Amino acid sequence: MAHYSVLARLGMLAVLWFDLAAAYGASPGVTDGDCPAEGDAVRVQLVFDGIRSSKGNITVAVYGSRPSEFLAKGKKVAKGRIPARAGTVRACLFLPKPGVYALAAYHDEDGDMHLNRNFIGLPAEGYAFSNNPSSLIGLPSFRSVAFTVGTSLNAMPLHLHYP
């Protein structure tokens, strides 16, 4: 029991450390709620709408300025999860520096930490991309989802699409 208690406390301290680090711009990541109005951190206020249920999480993945790394495994510059709530969810994305980025997100309703797909490979869960590109089938291009982040607070509306 004592061993478990120590591990649990260490885990809670690690979570608190990463939340505080993100809030002060020390590391990239995503936090639930509004971005702080002031500070030196490079941040983007994400506003997800069209969320159909409060089940699971919204998973956010951010990629850098290289088109060849967009959606590539192991090439994210930031990743995070926030609790889903039906309707609209606000989150703050902290980035390492101003620049060009691309964002992909999905509603992980079943909580398995994967974007589930149907038998032909299309998403079976809600998804969104930065700039809300229109796409009937297939993935959007890097060019259509790339956005530039400056030093001030930036805003990014994201609409989730469900199959």
Category by helix and strand content: alpha+beta
Number of domains: 1
Overall pLDDT level: 84
Label the overall shape.
Answer: globular
How do the SSEs run, as a string of H and E? HEEEEEEEHEE
Into which percent range does the helicity of residues fall? Answer: 10-25%
Uncertain spans: 3-26
* Overall radius of gyration: 16 Å
Strand content: 35-45%
- Care to count the β-strands? 9
Largest sheet report: 5 strands, antiparallel
End-to-end separation: 46 Å
> Counting H and I runs of at least 4 residues, what is the number of helices?
2
Your description of this structure?
This protein is α+β, with helices and mostly antiparallel strands and 163 residues long. It has helices at residues 2-23, 142-145, and strands spanning 29-32, 42-51, 57-63, 76-83, 87-95, 99-108, 127-129, 146-149, 154-159. The chain has one domain (2-159). The strands form 2 sheets. Strands 3, 4, 6, 7 and 8 form a 5-stranded antiparallel sheet that branches. A 4-stranded mixed sheet has the order 1-5-2-9. The longest helix is centred in the N-terminal third of the chain and has 22 residues, at 2-23. The radius of gyration is 16 Å and the shape is globular.
Task: Indicate the topology.
Layout: H1 2-23, E1 29-32, E2 42-51, E3 57-63, E4 76-83, E5 87-95, E6 99-108, E7 127-129, H2 142-145, E8 146-149, E9 154-159
Feature tags:
9 strands, 4-stranded mixed sheet, single chain, 2 helices, alpha+beta, 16% helix, globular, 5-stranded antiparallel sheet, 163 residues
